[in-house]
Amino acid sequence: MERINKLNWFLTTKNNEHIGVWVTKDGYIRHEFLPNGRYDETRGDIKSAYTGYYNRLGNHVEYLDDTGFVAEGDFKDGVFYHAGMVLYKESA
């Protein structure tokens, strides 16, 4: 059973072009936005290095990691900026 979101965060937009995998240019970080409001970040060979909930409000994303920290990021011109990283959407 999936953990219940304590803050009642949920996906608030029907605009879902953010869903999918976003990757740094070197491929080291792979950040996946899932359609259920969860995210899963792989770092190098470490799968699910970070997981938690996200909430997108326009171009802004707020995170609540499963370990308890919070973070944020922003989409701008098809690029995702998060915690000093620049990520690009992986094409199919």
UniProtKB/TrEMBL annotation:
Pfam families documented for this protein: Atu4866
Protein name: Protein Atu4866
Organism: Mucilaginibacter ginsenosidivorax
Species classification: Bacteria, Pseudomonadati, Bacteroidota, Sphingobacteriia, Sphingobacteriales
